[in-house]
Design brief:
8 helices; alpha+beta; seven-stranded antiparallel sheet; globular; T-fold
Length: 285
């Protein structure tokens, strides 16, 4: 028999977050979820580039060789992104915004940039263009026209931090959902066999998550919003979607984007090297 599920949600980072909790009383579940959602608000204020005084916004307004004070969450997320950048041979890159920008018109419709526009944008990207200092709590930018976007990792990172908060409050069985695209589960779910998750495509099996995370990325309009930071071009629209399963949500979030960019052999090699990671890829044309 399925156990009762307690739910609480909030809007942040331009998406709807939901927390589902079971195996505890409703008052404890709602109190714990409320505390976790308050942490989410704090993380959004620190990590969103759209928040004018966020740590990321301050970084994005720096000129070459300038530094700004930032908090622990920003340093943690940037350094985690750096690690995943290295693990994916550059396929995941939070610094690629200047390159992405030249492939879009002001109204976000696609455009074809010139070779000179691409070359100029490429000069401003790369994880070697930003340094963080955990002792002095600063970030230093080493390039002009440099900015970062944590959109490919920030929601997953937020789920990870919220899960820590829930566990610290004594919650042992929960599912955290960021807009349906990134999920984190711990405990054995409402029926004892994990938390069911859908990929949202026809004939796809339900995946039961248990102490791991699932994230998916795809194309809104045939892929125009995905740019390969290694080849400086649009990703083929034949790569319609990708999903990743990983031990924690920030990694799953980042890998679902990286897997759209990486070749299938690269993905196979990555998953063989990281046995706790799985990739789910629809048949590619």
């Amino acid at each position: 028999m399925a156990k009762k599920i307690h739910r609480l949600g909030s809007h942040a980072m331009a998406t709807e977050f939901q927390i589902l909790i079971t195996d505890t009383s409703e008052p404890k579940a709602l109190a714990s979820a409320s505390n976790a959602l308050r942490d989410l608000e704090t993380l959004e204020a620190e990590l969103s580039r759209f928040q004018g005084n966020s740590d990321i916004s301050r970084i994005n307004h720096l000129k070459k060789n300038q530094s700004a004070p930032i908090g622990y969450a920003a340093i943690d997320c940037i350094e985690l992104a750096r690690e995943i950048h290295l693990q994916t041979n550059g396929a995941f890159d939070i610094t690629s915004s200047p390159l992405i920008a030249v492939f879009s018109n002001p109204d976000k419709s696609p455009r074809e940039p010139t070779k000179n526009e691409i070359a100029k944008a490429v000069e401003s990207i790369g994880m070697n263009k930003i340094q963080t200092d955990s002792e002095f709590m600063t970030a230093t930018v080493l390039s002009e026209n440099f900015w970062i976007d944590l959109g490919g990792i920030g929601k997953g990172y937020a789920l990870d931090q919220m899960a820590i908060k829930l566990k610290d409050s004594g919650i042992e069985n929960a599912l955290l959902d960021a807009g349906g695209s990134t999920l984190l589960a711990f405990g054995n779910g409402p029926e004892g066999n994990g938390w069911p998750a859908s990929l949202g495509i026809p004939n796809a099996p339900t995946i039961n998550l248990q102490n791991n995370s699932l994230s998916g990325s795809g194309f809104s309009e045939r892929g125009e919003h995905i740019i390969d930071p290694r080849k400086y071009c649009r990703v083929s629209a034949s790569k319609i979607n990708s999903w990743s399963i990983a031990p924690y949500a920030a990694l799953a979030d980042a890998l679902s984007t990286a897997f759209l960019i990486m070749e299938e052999k690269e993905i196979e090699d990555f998953c063989m090297k990281h046995e706790e990671v799985k990739a789910i890829l629809p048949e590619r044309a």
